[in-house]
Write a structure and sequence with these properties.
Layout: H1 5-22, H2 35-45, H3 50-63, H4 67-71, H5 75-81, H6 88-106, H7 114-118, H8 125-135, H9 146-154, H10 163-171, H11 180-193
Helix pairs in contact: 1-11, 2-3, 2-8, 5-6, 9-11
């Protein structure tokens, strides 16, 4: 039996209080100058580091200007432009097809609803949430990336395993709506700096005394089973 909702909500509140002090100015780490660039960057970021994506898009955004440029591009050439990105062939196809849809169905503009965004090729709820939050200033959900998935479970905030279920769990009385956007950025920052997937630095963690997965208190192998 898992912890009751009230306990997990209190844990989330404590985590938010501490990480908001540790990271007072959370922000997205992908580089972009408009909504289409944001959409493309997020699609490219799936199972790839933001650092790598930013290196690739620095040249990509210079070469392709607007949805028509991507829609008219040769997919093989587009793939070669992003070939240092994981799954670059698939992602090139997604970007090309998504831009065709944006032109045909949305007058060349990136849509601003969850349903329209997730209808685009290669765009799931996580990507749509990022585009809504940072492109349209609409917070409809919580972005659950690998860091949010890992840390929310390690910290005992949720026992759900899959991103969609984790998001629903967090939104259902655990993370206050006013923190939905920053919750993601706080956990990403903490996941990169301290609570890494394989070697979490529990001794230097600001959450160590409230973390049920602390290595200082148990012999739990935090890396076990984590290929997120």
């Amino acid at each position: 039996m898992g912890e009751p909702l009230e306990t997990r909500a209190a844990q989330a509140e404590e985590v938010i209080d501490r990480l908001s002090e540790e990271y007072p100015d959370p922000e997205i780490s992908l580089n972009f100058s408009n909504r289409l660039e944001l959409l493309i960057a997020v699609v490219l970021s799936a199972q790839c580091t933001d650092e790598r994506v930013n290196k690739v898009t620095a040249e990509l955004f210079e070469k392709y200007d607007g949805a028509e440029a991507y829609a008219n591009a040769d997919v093989e050439e587009l793939a070669s432009d992003i070939d240092s990105i994981t799954y670059y062939n698939n992602k090139a196809g997604y970007i090309h097809d998504a831009c065709e849809t944006i032109i045909a169905e949305h007058d060349g503009e990136v849509p601003d609803t969850m349903s329209e965004l997730t209808d685009l090729p290669g765009v799931g709820r996580k990507t749509a949430n990022v585009v809504l939050q940072h492109g349209h200033d609409i917070t409809e959900g919580i972005v659950v990336d690998t860091h949010v998935q890992r840390l929310s479970r390690r910290l005992g905030i949720t026992e759900a395993e899959r991103p969609a279920k984790i998001e629903r769990d967090l939104m259902d009385g655990i993370v206050p709506e006013e923190h939905w956007q920053n919750y993601t950025h706080w956990l990403i920052s903490h996941g990169r700096d301290t609570c890494t997937a394989r070697n979490p630095d529990c001794a230097e963690c600001v959450l160590e005394d409230v973390c049920p997965s602390s290595k200082l208190d148990s012999d739990v192998d935090l890396a076990d089973g984590e290929a997120w």
